[in-house]
Amino acid sequence: MGNPPGHRTATKLWLGVGAYALVAGSAVPAGPAEAQTPPAASQQAPAAMHAPASQPAAQGGEGGEGGEGGSAGAFGGAPPNVAYAVRLTLIRGHLAIGRELLEAGAASEALPHFLHPTEEIYPDLAAGLRERRAPEFGKELEALAKAVREGADRRQIAQRRDVVEHALGAAMRRLPADTGDSAGFISQVAVLVLRQAAAEYEEAVEDGRIASAVEYQDGRGFLKAAEGLLRGHDSALRAKDFRAWREVDDALTRLALAWPTPRAPERAILSPGEVSGLVSRIELAAGDWR
Q1: 65 with 72: CB under 8 angstroms?
Q2: In a domain, 31, yes or no
Q3: pLDDT per residue over 198-231, tens digit each?
Q4: How confident is the model at residue 77 (pLDDT cuts 50, 70, 90)?
Q5: What is the pLDDT of residues 185-202, one digit of tens each?
Q6: Paired strand residues for 206
Q7: Which residues does 241 contact at the CB level (< 8 Å), separation at least 6?
Q8: Which helix (H) or strand (E) holds 104?
């Protein structure tokens, strides 16, 4: 099957994400042994926007009943190409946090993040893949989750993860050329992923404590994916509006404080309100990229 007209542009978009978000990853440990203390890894942060949160785009997204994958979720009302790219980016976020947790020796904590793409996102993404004649990869997601669940060795897990990453890249290359690498499109996708990260953080925090490690980790993964998208295209975003980039960059750095490690700390460092405020600050600044 030949590549659509947007092949080169969308390839640039996905490579930008991958080069920033995934290049630092190391090999997955050999088994499901649990680490007893969180690593001291510091975290990075999220991204920007296209339309204000209170005024979503008029066109509907593709399918879904809410949550991470559904049209009633954080990107309700987004144009179809945006919703499609957001779903792909959310899957990448799950893979990112799952990989971090495996590298920390926390296989049981990692497993949900390899299951969530299949359970929460892929059912709504599948129609978009078919519409764009992109290869489907539901079975590959299931095989990756199975490898993690069964405690496969690092090579097997890495191989299956690479297959999924390749499929994600192929799916992103199906975006049309006039959307995939534009500053407005990049920022709109990133800010919607950040909204979802903020929603997960709000669900995770209760009375100043991290009550749900899984939702905290979901938020961290989405943060990494959104930040990877923005920082992977920082040159283009700076050129479009340097003052907007400086504002977004500062807010991303501050937002990163909310997710300091892959394994959840006992207490929240930022309040949910502070996280939402930083996402709104990014969204407002990124409006200059429209």
Answers
A1: yes
A2: no
A3: 999 999 999 999 999 999 999 999 999 999 999 9
A4: confident
A5: 999 999 999 999 999 999
A6: 209
A7: 288, 289
A8: none
At how many degrees (to 10) do helices 7-21 and 213-231 cross? 120
At residue 196, the pLDDT reads 96
Whether 90 maps to a domain, the answer reads yes
Alpha-carbon span 74 to 191, nearest angstrom: 10
d(CA 169, CA 83): 16
User: Which pLDDT tens digit goes with each residue over 36-60?
Assistant: 333 333 333 333 323 333 333 333 3
Each as own residue / partner, the long-range contacts of residues 269-273 (CB below 8 Å, 24 or more positions apart, any chain) are: 271/205, 271/208, 272/198, 272/201, 272/202, 272/205
Whether 280 is in a domain gets the answer yes
> Is the whole-model pTM more than 0.70?
yes
- For 36, phi then psi, to 5°, come to -95, -20
Q: How far apart are CA 149 and CA 165, in angstroms?
A: 19
Could you give the number of structural domains in the chain?
1
Structural domain for 11, as ranges: 7-21+74-289
SS3 (DSSP) at 11:
helix
Provide CB contacts within 8 A for 154, sequence distance 6+. Answer: 27, 28, 29, 30
Rounded distance between C-alpha atoms, residue 154 and residue 284, angstroms: 42
Q: Specify the pLDDT at position 246.
A: 96
